[in-house]
């Protein structure tokens, strides 16, 4: 089904109309299409997108569950402030990537990485099972091959970092995987553009060796060094942007 979108372009909702509508509305909210606008009623959305009221109702319900919308008495459905969004939700993170690049958002992503990833590496040195170590080793080997032109270095780098979350042995750390994936995707694009930098193979190998050696302090320090270096680049760019004003 093709419909004319409020914002000008023609698109298809796909075979699953509810999921298609969820995706288009969620992306529109997150990238700011509805900023300073009243969010449409279910009846208006149904007419605009050429779908039934039950489809719009279900899509709105799903967006509400993700924290993007809330129904208020005498106000109807309104968009929630960003602080209320479920920022660990896979869809919300994907929609955030559709936004215009924001150095502030990247800094916030990286500040969380500094809090999470070094501790995950420390825990991995304590808790990693044989299967976790093999997964990490395979991810690192893909990084090495990608650095030589065989494969996607971004995907390999992300897989390595995600493998450490799993190796931590703490299921709460697993829940950060989509956020870390999104943060890394944004971070790698930024550092490549600013410094023409590629993933530091030696620095990643130092993390892996510390985990394999069951040395928690060394693993923590090695991961902290990598992530904090990104934060320093971001701070330097923010300072440069301020001076340019």
From TrEMBL:
InterPro entries: GntR_C (IPR011711), TF_FadR/GntR_C (IPR008920), Tscrpt_reg_HTH_GntR (IPR000524), WH-like_DNA-bd_sf (IPR036388), WH_DNA-bd_sf (IPR036390). Residues 15-82 form the HTH gntR-type domain. GO terms for molecular function: DNA binding; DNA-binding transcription factor activity. Keywords: DNA-binding, Transcription, Transcription regulation. SUPFAM superfamilies: GntR ligand-binding domain-like, Winged helix' DNA-binding domain. It comes from the Bacteria. It holds the Pfam family GntR. The keyword Phosphoprotein does not apply. Coiled coil: none annotated. This is Galactonate operon transcriptional repressor. The lineage of its organism: Bacteria, Pseudomonadati, Pseudomonadota, Alphaproteobacteria, Caulobacterales.
């Amino acid at each position: 089904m093709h419909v004319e979108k409020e914002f000008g372009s023609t698109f298809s909702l796909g075979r699953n109309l509810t999921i298609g509508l969820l995706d288009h509305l969620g992306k529109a909210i997150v990238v700011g299409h509805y900023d300073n606008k009243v969010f449409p009623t279910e009846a208006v959305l149904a007419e605009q997108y050429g779908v039934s009221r039950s489809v719009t109702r279900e899509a709105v319900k799903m967006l509400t569950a993700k924290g993007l919308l809330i129904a208020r008495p005498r106000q109807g459905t309104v968009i929630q402030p960003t602080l209320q969004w479920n920022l660990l939700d896979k869809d919300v993170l994907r929609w955030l990537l559709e936004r215009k690049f924001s150095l502030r958002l990247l800094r916030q992503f990286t500040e969380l990485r500094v809090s999470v990833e070094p501790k995950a590496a420390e825990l991995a040195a304590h808790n990693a099972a044989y299967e976790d170590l093999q997964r990490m080793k395979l991810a690192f080997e893909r990084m090495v091959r990608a650095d030589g032109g065989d494969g996607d270095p971004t995907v390999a780098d992300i897989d390595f970092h995600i493998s450490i979350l799993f190796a931590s042995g703490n299921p709460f750390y697993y829940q950060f995987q989509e956020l870390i994936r999104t943060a890394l995707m944004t971070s790698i694009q930024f550092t490549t553009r600013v410094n023409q930098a590629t993933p530091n193979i030696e620095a990643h190998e130092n993390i892996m060796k510390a985990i394999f050696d069951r040395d928690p302090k060394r693993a923590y320090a090695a991961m902290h060094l990598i992530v904090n270096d990104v934060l320093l680049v971001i701070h330097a760019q923010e300072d440069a942007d301020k001076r340019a004003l």
